[in-house]
Amino acid sequence: MSEARLQDRVAVVTGGASGIGAGTVRRLIQDGARVVLADIQGDAAELLAKDIGPRARAIRADVSAEADVAAAVDLAVSEFGGMDIMFANAGVFGAYGPIHTADMAAVDATWAIDLRGVFLCMKHAARVMRPQGSGVIIATTSPAAVMGGVGNHAYSAAKAGIIGLMRSVAAELRPHGIRVNAVMPGAVVSAMTADLRLGNATALDKVTEVMTQDAGGHRPGLPEDLAAAVSYLASDDAAFVTGHTLIVDGGYTSIGAESPFSTGDYAGGGAFFEAGRRG
Q1: How does residue 195 score in pLDDT terms, banded at 50, 70 and 90?
Q2: How many CA atoms lie within 13 A of 179 on its CB side?
Q3: Is there a catalytic annotation at residue 232?
Q4: What is the pLDDT of residues 142-165, one digit of tens each?
Q5: Cβ proximity of 37 and 19 under 8 Å
Q6: What structural domains and CATH numbers belong to the chain?
Q7: What angle do CA 43, 83, 72 make, to 5 degrees?
């Protein structure tokens, strides 16, 4: 990994004040980029940008509001001279409950942030990137997009929608030199997961312990794991990667449980054949 793999490139990161977003902001800065942090947590975004220094700017942005997304993109252009990377990461778990009692106002609010927000990020990134003939757009989806029972209904629908949207936009923008991809994180230690699991967004150490137990002793995902994936997709190392969902979940969606057929009674090897015959 070259620490200058993104030297002088300009990124906008939505949801950049905490969790995966904040970890990615720090990684992009480490890799040489200049970054606009766009987050509805405006004060937290300002504090992080101040801590990072002159290569970061912050703006309060509600990604469901088109004017806010446009303003974040325009800030990148006015402060840093352009935009090369859009990481459409902001999202919420949103509405929950049985489908037959769904609160549609809460459902609509969830979709406004989790799917409309990504759409708007792609729209305004393309507005800048098409004339320059280059750029990378990355969106955050979830295992809930492809697995039932992982997320609530509204969240699952939105995250599935992101994959379809990403592929559609990738097809449009490929002739313009713009790559469009998604990252699919598993359970990641963050304020959001601490709030979801423990009802306390500040209990990061405790939620790390709980998530480690849930993972059978394996460590949970960290914001840094996703940040590394985003840095790769944003870089020239991924120059031939577009329309792709990069799964970063420690094997959660593809492995599931540990294999039982290589330990215990099966450690010595063998084979099953017809009608109880073994070899």
Answers
A1: low
A2: 20
A3: no
A4: 999 999 998 999 999 999 999 999
A5: no
A6: 10-186+222-266 (3.40.50.720), 189-220 (no CATH)
A7: 30
